[in-house]
């Protein structure tokens, strides 16, 4: 798994590539957690390069969502591949996470919301 | 077209890439590429459970066999960890809101959702054998 951070208008965008699984989910949790603790409570995870997410990866995502929302922000997911979308659906995550077609749409969704 | 391919490694998280490559290669070799993604995912969930829970106090072997049968792939995962019946894993509440949703507890739920068949049996004394079955549509031809 690789993760590249950029920033757009105060929103941290994490472009993730590879598998978010039992081996890599700890690193994802740490890296996203650092961003949230550094004051970036508004985050977008760009999933265009994510091949699959296991339950360990879902755990890291949910932990980050909870952390960000408790600080008045959110972690929103963008550009999810169909096979990953299926796992999000199976896990009931599509009802608790905000998932967008594109990073731009996720960005827009934050506009006007209090940070 | 019955083929059997086996793999054995230590139950450590660092072995996961090798385990997943084994499943990937076995699917490619036996014309089961369509089942590859779901099988890799289910095998990952089972092996991570064995490594992080079953072998929580140390390590032990994990053995995989990949059986390609007409219309189906069957993967068995054998460990020497204490007995654990996945039927005992609680069913997650998928309707709960984000605040009350617990972290974790989705592994076996996903395995059941991704596979057509999930079975477990205990070896005498210690050890578990988990059998995962995934149908393969042969009408699409072997790729």
Structure description:
- The complex is a heterodimer of chains A (115) and B (143).
- Chain A is 40% helix and 31% strand.
- With 115 residues, chain A is α/β, with parallel strands linked by helices.
- A 5-stranded mixed sheet of chain A has the order 1-2-3-4-5.
- The N and C termini of chain A lie far apart (29 Å).
- Helices cover 29% and strands 27% of the residues of chain B.
- A 5-stranded antiparallel sheet of chain B has the order 1-2-3-5-4, covered by helices on one side.
- In chain B, a hairpin with a 5-residue loop joins strand 4 and strand 5.
- The two termini of chain B are 14 Å apart.
- Chain A binds chain B through residues 19, 21-23, 52, 54-56, 58-59, 62-63, 65-66, 69, 83, 87, 90-92, 95-97, and chain B through 13-14, 16-17, 20, 37, 40-41, 44-45, 47-48, 51-52, 92, 94-99, 101, 103-107, 109-110, 113-114.
Mean pLDDT of chain A: 94
Helix content of chain B: 25-40%
Strand order of the largest sheet of chain B: 1-2-3-5-4
Poorly predicted tracts of residues of chain A: none
Structural class of chain A: alpha/beta
List the helices and strands of chain A in order: EEHEHEHEH
User: Mean pLDDT of chain B, rounded to whole units?
Assistant: 94
Q: Could you describe the largest sheet of chain B, including whether it forms a barrel?
A: 5 strands, antiparallel
Query: In order across it, which strands form the biggest sheet of chain A?
Result: 1-2-3-4-5
Annotation, overall tally of beta strands of chain A: 5
- Shape designation of chain B: globular
User: How widely separated are the two ends of chain B?
Assistant: 14 Å
- CA-based shape of chain A: globular
Helix share of residues of chain A? 40-55%
Over the alpha carbons, how many angstroms does the gyration radius of chain A reach? 13 Å
In oligomeric terms, what are we looking at?
heterodimer
* Biggest pleated sheet of chain A: 5 strands, mixed
> Count of DSSP helices of chain B?
3
